[in-house]
Every structure is written in structure tokens, then in C-alpha cells.
Specification:
This protein is mostly beta strands and 78 residues long. The protein is built from one helix and five strands, in the order ββαβββ.
């Protein structure tokens, strides 16, 4: 199943496969998501879904749905 992934605020859209790693999808789209530990512990890769939920991109895969909107915000610490 193909999922349309939209990265805000730059409005970059890319197609992804269900189960594909979110960081890989972002990289393919040319979208930078900062990382630290790559295990979800440091929260450097936190992004926000359209419903307001915060997720850690390094441990998240693309869910089975038609579209996924991800709000990127930058933490000056990273």
C-alpha cells in the first residue's frame, strides 16, 4: 500500500510504502530530521503528526493509511 507523506512547513510530499522507516522516507524526500541516539531515547527526532501527537521519527514506520502529514519543528539544542 502506498501512503502519501506530506512534510510541513515546507510542504514536501513523497510516496512511501507501509512499514517503511520514516527517517528513510524523509531522507528520500530531501527533508532533514535531526537525530541523536537513533533509539528514541533522546527525542532529537521528535516530529508532530497532524492530530497533534508527537512521535520519534527514528523508531517510527509509515502506518497503513492514505495520507500522513508530519509537522517538523526544530529544537535549537540539536
Amino acid at each position: 500500500m502506498i501512503v502519501r507523506v506530506r512534510f510541513l512547513p515546507d510542504d514536501v510530499t513523497v510516496d512511501a510504502e507501509v512499514g517503511e522507516a520514516l527517517l528513510d522516507v524523509a531522507d528520500r524526500a530531501g527533508v532533514f530530521i535531526p537525530t541523536g541516539c537513533l533509539m528514541g531515547s533522546c527525542y532529537a527526532c521528535s516530529v508532530e503528526l497532524e492530530n497533534g501527537d508527537n512521535i520519534r521519527a527514528c523508531i517510527t514506520v509509515i502506518p497503513a493509511r492514505e495520507e500522513l502529514t508530519i509537522n517538523l519543528f526544530s529544537d535549537p539544542t540539536w
